[in-house]
Amino acid sequence: MQDGSLTRTVDRTGKVHKEEMSILSSTVPQMTVISGENHSSDSNVEHIPIRYRMTLSEKINKFLNSNIVTITLNIATIYALFGDDIKTLGFAKSSDDGFSSLVVICLFLFSLELTLSFIFKPDYKWSFYFWLDLIATVSLITDISWIWESALGLSSGSSNSKSLQNAGKASRAGTRSTRALRIIRIVRLIRIVKLYKNAKTAMKNREMRKNEEDEIIRDMPEVQESKVGKRMSEVTMKRVIIIVLALLFILPLFETDFYYTSQTSWEFGLTELNTFLNQDGFDYAMDEYWSYHESDNRPIVYLQYTTGDGVQHNISSNATNYNDLRFSEIFYASSGNLISIFDLRYDVKLTSLLNVCRTIFICIVLTLGSIYFTKDSEDLVIKPIEKMIEKVKIIAKNPIAAAEIQEMSNKREEEENSQNKKCFGLCKAETKKRDYETKLLENTILKIGVLLALGFGEAGSLIIGGNVEAGGDVDPMANGNKVIGIYGFCDIRNFTDTTEELQEGVMMFVNEIAQIVHGLVDKYLGAANKNIGDAFLLVWKFQKDELFLNEEDKIVRNPSSKRAHYLPDVTMISFLKIMAKVNKDPAILKYRTNQKLLQRMPNYEVKMGFGMHLGWAIEGAIGSQFKIDASYLSPNVNVASALEGSTKIYGVPLLISGPLYESFSEPIQRYCRHIDTIVLKGNAKPLKLYTSDCDFTDFTPSRSADRSKMYFRKKRRTLKKGLEKQEFTTADIYSRSKEIALMRKPYTREFFDFFSKGMNNYLSGMWQMSKNQLEKVLAIRNRDGPTLSLMSFMSETAYRAPAHWKGSRYLG
């Protein structure tokens, strides 16, 4: 099952509840409770998935549009176009029944498709293509020999004069009409073009999603033909079909053969022979007539005459019996009491061969006509519109992707330009790029998407997506959404003094720090949310199938989710990397030499405080119709803010809450130190505080690094791919980091042992013993902030724990 599907929750009381299903409650027998307790799914609740059922109309349409049906009908269409000509070219009259049976099968398939489409496809009913398909289907009847001959009053067993005369005339007339109608069947080959387009689109979608390294490409919606493009293609195809059919039917009207037939030697010779009938010399004239036509490409096969005494004489060819010929393969001539029949198989086969060539030619004309007539409109209008629609859908689905798409497009254009320059004129002629209005609109849509993403951030995705997808007026006041995430607050120290001294330069000062903060948080799978002067709110959001709240309001982790396990670990390293960057980046270090700042604050350094906490929050729009901000509201966000403010009390740059610490993997927990347990204002439960020790004394300036968004996103994708495929672990990231090793180098095992003992004594109320241990800590590091804070707090009561001491102190 996939997250987001619907389930019915049925309890033992018989009540049925419809809710959004979490994978965890139905597929995972036991969950990991981050707070330290185990929580199993309720045995009284049964999850019954509700699957979407297609209607009959949807099933029929899916069946008609399936590849199997399309390919089958295309094969039947090809047979309907060429079967009769192939029969004439290579098979005798005795095989006609077999070919007629195949035509009956094709007629059944076309009739079934025509009926189903007429009933279940509203756009097809009484449409242009319906009438063409109907005519093409009905024309198949003419290829069924026994039906066609019966309709014309012909009988293959008849040999009387009247039957032969009717056969000769009717078959030629029928052949002309059926060949004209058969051309309409070519229209069915348009299905092949449509099948090719669908296959090409499907292949493009597969190729887009094949690149796993680019999550933005992979998350793009499937490419589909736009309604404008579909409509324009249909209109163009109709016009091409009408023009081709009109030419095929009208051009014969301008030929003389359409109005009269020139007399042949068969008819003229028979007329002359009739004058010798019942006279001397008739036998000689008859022999001459027979011998003259016997060796022709269209040989005489039968001659009949009746003498004056009423006796009928028949002469037949030894090579061919006219009864073995189709009615379309004979020519009947008569004059008086004389009848002659000729074998026209040479002409019929030549005509069939030309029909095959003509049919292929018309197919090519229809295909090329439909392609080239629509090419310009597709290149200039349809494709740009489809690109715009595609980008709008992407913005609606993932507004954050807009900026990346624009950067990817710019990078692709730069690569193409650089490649063209390397050709030195030897490559294929470069296509001239013109800035059409459609390109301007496409770029504008992307820029608007970029601005929306920058303005609203990740928390505003629902607001942007909902308004883009929905019609009507803009409604920025979207409902809140409860999410679980890790919230980080960071603050620039001495910001008021810095602002007064830098004046207009303070904006660049803040933005240079924000570039580092936002970039590294994005690299380590987070997102920047709020910029409040000297403070930043940063968020790492979990999906619904990764973490969720149980009935006791405890956060439960899905043990099968990789991201739920590695995401907490990378949050801390992002803040450690930010602190390292601030203490080594030349763009930030330059403020240490700013004379105004040094005069006001001697030995000035850019310092920041960080607070981190894990919990739920309401994600949504805050404000009114005049101005809104997309952010997070929750006591847990306030805790993160309070922890950031408390860093000044403990003299550390980073404070981590107990719930977040418990979500770290065991190797990462070793990088943290428990420095106190407090009760925050407005909270009844004690909260453990942790920090990750860092000393930047040995840091040296580094070279200027790439700060572009593409750089950080590339690093983000590499990190995510490696963690998902388990190419490395978060512990590997920490252990391989030279910056983390350098900042932790001054802290010895002895230092941590003394502090741990002092902390345990402090929590248990043995403050005098705690004092002795903490003094040993100060002997190693005399300016350790957490130690000085604990000593200061215990000194208020002369290192004696109060009677009400429960292992935590109140921090207002």
From TrEMBL:
An MF annotation (GO) of this entry: monoatomic ion channel activity
Annotated Pfam families: Guanylate_cyc (PF00211), Ion_trans (PF00520)
InterPro entries, per database record: A/G_cyclase (IPR001054), Ion_trans_dom (IPR005821), Nucleotide_cyclase (IPR029787), Volt_channel_dom_sf (IPR027359)
Domain spans labelled Guanylate cyclase: 486-644
Keyword RNA-binding: no
Keyword Transmembrane included in the entry's annotation: yes
Gene Ontology biological process terms in this record: cyclic nucleotide biosynthetic process; intracellular signal transduction
Membrane-traversing stretches: 63-82, 102-120, 240-260
Keyword tags: Membrane, Transmembrane, Transmembrane helix
Membrane topology annotation: Multi-pass membrane protein
Domain of life: Eukaryota
Compartments, record wording: Membrane
Identification of the protein by name: Guanylate cyclase domain-containing protein
Organism in which the protein naturally occurs: Stentor coeruleus
